[in-house]
Amino acid sequence: LCLHVVHSPERKKLAMGGATGMVVLMVTIIPAALLHMVSAGGTPPFSCWPGAPYVRFCDQRVPVEQRAADLVARLTLAEKVSQLGDVAAAVPRLGVPAYKWWSEGLHGLSMWGKGMHFTGAVKQVTSFPQVLLTTASFDEKIWYFIGQAIGVEARALYNIGQAEGLTIWSPNVNIYRDPRWGRGHETPGEDPITVSKYAVAFVRGLQGPSPTTLQTSACCKHATAYDLDDWRGTVRYSFNARVSPQDLADTFNPPFRSCVSEGQASCVMCAYTSVNGVPACADYNLLTKTFRGEWGLKGYVASDCDAIALVHDGQHFRPTPEDTVATTLKAGMDMNCGNYTQVHGMAALRQGKMTERDVDKTLVNLFSVRMRLGHFNGDPRSNPLYGHFGANDVCSPAHKNLALHAAESGIVLLKNDAGILPLRRWTVGSVAVIGPNANDPGALLGNYFGPPCETITPLRGLNGYVKDVRFEPGCIDTACWSAATGKAVAVARSTDHVILFMGTSHVQEEEGRDRTSLLLPGQQQSLIEAVASAAKRPVILVLLTGGPVDVTFAKFNPKIGAIVWAGYPGQAGGLAIAKVLFGEHNPSGRLPVTWYPEEYMRVPMTDMRMRADPATGYPGRTYRFYRGPTVYKFGYGLSYSRFSRRLAASGLAGHQKSLLAGLTSTAAADGGASHYDVEEVGAERCEQLKFPAVVEVENHGPMDGKHSVLMFLRWPNATGGRPASQLVGFQSQHLEAGEKASLTFDVSPCEHLSRAREDGKMVIDGASHFLFVDEDDEAEISFDA
């Protein structure tokens, strides 16, 4: 019990109901740990604790923006500037605790960042597959549940005192434009629709069910047109991406728009790069007019780490540090990852480069998010939605099962000659397991990982299925500068079956490191070919890679009977692979990126154009615009069963066509069909134009399994910058052998059938469009009134 005297200098009514302007005696029960902190001069572990005087920023009945504004108004100028970095200082006199903004949760909580630590009661967290593999499932439910699980584990760590922040700087929703990009495997792939749907599902899971009381805060990064780290001396810190309005409108920006407008993400991160001469973190048109004005961001804008310093030091966009801080804050950047704004902020204010009002606007955005996280609502353990989460909710059986399910759902079967897979356990006496990725725990995790709950390598996974497993790494690591070919060949000759685990790792692709080749590294190819030639029967090649590789040699080699892509499959990856190889899981993954041949290396990474230019030999990028040979196409993936798909019904009704009759169509500049401006069509008409498209899918056996149906759009011609084809949507359906199902796709012409003009305007061509799920099965959609 603590007897103390309080006074309201603002002459406002006190929390215990006393009269205004009076001294009141209050008796409060204070936890011993809290009393010790306060008596020792420390900051309470949470603000607005029981018994404190009434202040407006503690009143949960007040709208959060008003609460934040009240708190900001109480800060001194020096205290305000101290809040502008990713490590925000405490303000003891107001009971404001210190806060660490930077935490990561790309595919599980991460050791990167400053907000989480794993040295207490919780020492491991669930490590899900790297994002690109998870995307290959084309299953939005899996994406949502992974986001939800990461959010639960973050809140659990916060509740038990192992987290000093709940702002998770994930997901990465950049387009995987170039197969060499070292961070491409962090993304959901190359298709804007897929990446957008991933962003919405993951963010909703991560942030929780309530828009006013966040489980965690999600941050969609890195806006915009960022997909180069280090290519032949051109580095992300100073790269100026030349991007057309057309490519921004229909490729680079849609995932961020969906993240904010549909997913309701509470943060967007601006990238290191400049776009058309303006650093992303200093671009008012992007950060304020687009993020907040057009897309309705309710939250904050974070910079990539040290990006504000680089605006001055690397890009030389402004002459002084003070000008740089002022320019970025006024552009709409709120949270500088780093301390550049804290170091130079006061000088920028004294020199008149910015005003206190500019800082206040930023801080209201920041404190609003902290309040939505419940940081000024008392003890976080009393939060009715998330206060019950604790150590038992981390690495829970449900989360472990989800990690396994995500991995096996994303694995893609690329080749299966003569039905070599699945293997039958009772017929496999011995197996040679060969390759540097067979027993390397690091090959499972990709980057931005935390300490996993468990680690099941492919070697360990196979040991659970075969008694006689003989292992030979063949190479020290994936670089494979020299290969133990003789040892590998000897092991291969001595066993019934051979499974090779090859691929890449952080040695070839990671943040700050773009790939220098699309071929398997070092001596891997020659090792594979030697082993395949020596084996008793065709071998199985399992690729653990982040991005695509040119394995044309394996695709056409009859001694290589099967090829499986397993990405970076997370903590349960070895078990997931074994279940697929032995038929306990019917593979259903489909590639979320195009696999290009090595000759694609001649295309400069710095050329940001998406569309092909036949006049110069530029081949274009991604399945939507690329004009050239492929190793495997976007959406490719085999199964142990045979599935058929048929577009059964679709089209606009007569009354829907009449909705466009009153609009003015514009003649196309390329001489093609006239078109309608989506903005002129308007939200109400766009809603009325939606129509269903029904796909009949059947599993012809012999195994039960899941099948992902991808629906595409094509135009009568690909002139005027139109894509060759464009994904409309996808659905994943589990079917027993012999079972049929009808899947209904809701098609929005304004969203799915529109295209970008050269000026970035989205339009609907007033002519025929063709929907298809198989290239020989199309349905024509006409917009002729």
UniProtKB/TrEMBL annotation:
Taxonomically, the superkingdom here is: Eukaryota
Q: Name one GO cellular component term.
A: extracellular region
GO annotation, biological process:
arabinan catabolic process; xylan catabolic process
Provide the Fibronectin type III-like domain boundaries.
707-777
GO molecular function annotations of the record = alpha-L-arabinofuranosidase activity; xylan 1,4-beta-xylosidase activity
Which Pfam families does the entry link to? Fn3-like (PF14310), Glyco_hydro_3 (PF00933), Glyco_hydro_3_C (PF01915)
| Bilayer-crossing regions | 14-38
InterPro entries under this entry?
BXL, Fn3-like, GH, Glyco_hydro_3_C, Glyco_hydro_3_C_sf, Glyco_hydro_3_N, Glyco_hydro_3_N_sf, Ig-like_fold
Which Gene3D superfamilies does the record cross-reference, listed alphabetically? Glycoside hydrolase family 3 C-terminal domain, Glycoside hydrolase, family 3, N-terminal domain, Immunoglobulins
Keyword entries, A-Z: Glycoprotein, Glycosidase, Hydrolase, Membrane, Secreted, Signal, Transmembrane, Transmembrane helix
Cellular location(s): Secreted
PANTHER family, alphabetized: FIBRONECTIN TYPE III-LIKE DOMAIN-CONTAINING PROTEIN, SUGAR HYDROLASE-RELATED
Q: What is this protein called?
A: Fibronectin type III-like domain-containing protein
Q: What is the lineage of its organism?
A: Eukaryota, Viridiplantae, Streptophyta, Embryophyta, Tracheophyta
